[in-house]
Amino acid sequence: MDTRTPPAPRTRLSAAALLLASSVLLSRVLGYAREALLAYRIGAGPATDAYYAAFQIPDLLNYLLAGGALSVAFLPLYTRHLARGDDAAADHLLATVLGTLGVAATAATVALWWWAAPLVALQFPRFDAPTQALTVHLTRIVLPGQICFIVGGIINATLFARERFGAAAAAPLLYNAAIIVGGLFLTPRLGPLLAPWLAARGHVRLWLRVAPGDRAFLRYLLVAAPLMLGQTLLTVDEWYGRWFGALLGAGTVAHLGYARRLMLVPVAVVGQAIAAAALPTLSRLWAEQRGDELNRLVLRTLQAGSVLAVFGSAAFIVLSRPLVVLMYQHGAFTARDTASVAPILAVMSLGVPAWIVQQIIVRAFYARGDTWRPMLLGTIVAAAAIPLYLSLGNRFGVLGLAAAGAVAMSVNALATLLLARRLHGAPDLGNLLGTTARATAIASVAAILAEWLVAGRGALGLPGALIELGAGGMLFLMVILIGTFTLGDAPMRTAVRRMLRR
User: 3-class DSSP state for residue 43?
Assistant: First the structure.
């Protein structure tokens, strides 16, 4: 009999977060190779606006079927059955959700494909006729892939419940790599389904059952409904950027899209990876009625995430210009485009800590099966933020839209923290604030010194960008490390030490 002690929840979470963070980072590298190719070939004009706008309807479909949050809605229910040893009920839930949502996704895809033209015209009325036609064409290309995203997401959730994260790590790599080589054999569409399906063989019983009236499916819908009906800034901030950006002139949607892709690097590598890895562990702790341990783990995870978020945010703010030059300023993407995108990136990066904190803290609710209250709060904030987007967009243009997103997301994250504190008695906001304040002070000094070193010293173009990134990035990192291990608290030192060790 194996008498080895199983890894502690925190150890398992760290290992899973590392795997997913590594996958996300490599996926982002491949994704930016794709974005760099897009920038090289068509720059930032109406055609690029059409490319980014073409994802709007597929994103809506994915969101309305909870495809982007399937693990959030499905995993706690599935984990509860596994914790009770009821594999038959777990298999029944999987088959019903898989079959019923698969049919719904297919039917919705056909309907949206047919109605793509009027829907595009409704959302982007200021696009000229050629740009609208191109958006419709690209939308119809992208739409079928959402079926694979949704079905693959369900299978991935079962693997998460069994602490198998390999498929989730492999799927985005396969997706982005296939796009770069030209979509060979439809792999970009099939990748999100193929990787989890292969990983699940031998571990999860996969079969389909279409039964929209089944009790197990209705229980799933009760948890998933707020994710389908609610609209939080984690999703709609990008929609607002497309809708309101399209009102500001040609190229605006493209500039926002390019900046967002870079801003999402720390959000994905830190926030997305930690949150995805945390949910299975938090769900299991709640199923085992270990609420105090869950709350302690949430606090430690928030402290680690906020430290890395603040450091990443400061780095992207001070190094925004060389980052944009390095990633995009080639071919049709000119220095003029860089002058527009770099400030957008800097402003967006102010909201990175809020993005990451929000992704982590909502898992404290989702692990308890509570999707209604955080989603209702997020929907209220998202709706209330519309006048802010309109006002700042009209007054300051594209930078106003970027600022509105950062402000609104910060309000959303703070409100969610306060709600969690009131309902769960945790996290300890004093400890979290203390760690975040220390990280902010250290990051501010590092950013000021790095800006002083590189400001006006780099030559134009790629060589200058490399000099700025190398010199500024090295100085920034040195100050961060010195500040962390001399002035940082224990959670800050632990987070940085683990990052360096891993």
Answer: coil
